Model the fold of this input.
Amino acid sequence: MNIKLRLIVMNFLQFAIWGAYLTSMGRYLGPAGMGAHIGLFYSVQGIVSLFMHALMGIVDDRWVSAQKMLALCHGLAGMGMLAACYYAQTAGDAVQFAPLFALYTLSVAFFMPTLALSNSVAYNALERSGLDTVRAFPPIRVFGTVGFICSMWLVDLAGFQASPMQFAVSGALGLLLALYALSLPPCAVSVRTGVHQSWIDTLGLRAFVLFKDRRMAVFFVFSMLLGMSLQITNGFANPFISSFAAEPAYADTFGVQHANILISLSQISETLCILLIPFFLRRFGIKRVMLVAMLAWVLRFGLFGMGNPGPGVWCFVLSMVVYGLAFDFFNISGSLFVDKETDPSIRSSAQGLFVLMTNGFGATIGTLVAQQVVNRFCQWQSVGGQDLLLGNWGAVWYIFAAYALVVAIAFALMFKERRGA
Done:
């Protein structure tokens, strides 16, 4: 099988696993009595990233090939997610926070490192085939977003948005990718028997020397600050749009009835924006590309604050469109930037460090703060037999938009590109 096609299948499954629950989990947790903990469920992805990305990157760089580590992580993550679904289904209305959160956390702890590991596997395979990663990877990564969309639609149309069955879909896809990853091209490891290494090399901490370079340090710090925006709409967009069911004028609109499908326009936008990355990076450089992403986050949040699923649905649609720029021009461009700026011997650890700053520190802090903002302005209420998160959503989204604008201005002033970049 052609190497690009093999990597397309890997990326499709990689993000289909995530898409099965990432945008709809809050819709299940609220009615299940855990609405006040939605932020914690999303932030745990960042909490485990604080150590799991680094740990798996270390093992990958030093001892175990990336494709085998990818298979192991997906196998364990898939079993954890299936266990979470089994518990929630059998417990029914008596589902408790502690056991569900523990099983979910176990699964996420092994899933999150695969975001960096899958990139390492793809970059390795493309380079071994003599292909330019900047040109070849974005079109392959598009199919990851396609997988995310397909699983979102599956969960929506199957009626799983407010059900723990979304976890079962994710777990089954995870086990499938675990088996498939074993067939991918082998990745070399750095350690060779009999070679003496310092403890820094042994622990895989060499990637942290990148902070000695002021330019890279600023890049990683702002990756963290921008990463604080990543999980906010994943956790709260679905409950927000669904909250319009409390208003008779909007209760039967498509957006309220199929929030996941409406939100999936964001991922459809991703598939188009990914293809723009090689052109924008070569033409404008990493700084301007990152600034576009930051300003897109301002629009993402601000348009949510302005819109509704009726006459104002155009605001929602436009918000979904700019999400492609907000996500891709940050995540994918940042990953490619790190790949080009680091030595191959620490590449996996460097990718892990990038994800650590974004999905680790950034997403953890951002989601926990977002939960407090939402709790301040909104509350779960029962309306017409439905549990809905109601309140001053406009204030919530405008606060997030203001934060993104401040980060964009600071980045424009502080980050310097290499001359000729």
Observations:
- The first strand starts at residue 378 and ends at 383.
- Residues 272 and 324 are 8 Å apart (CA to CA).
- The chain has 17 helices and two strands.
- The chain has a mean pLDDT of 85.
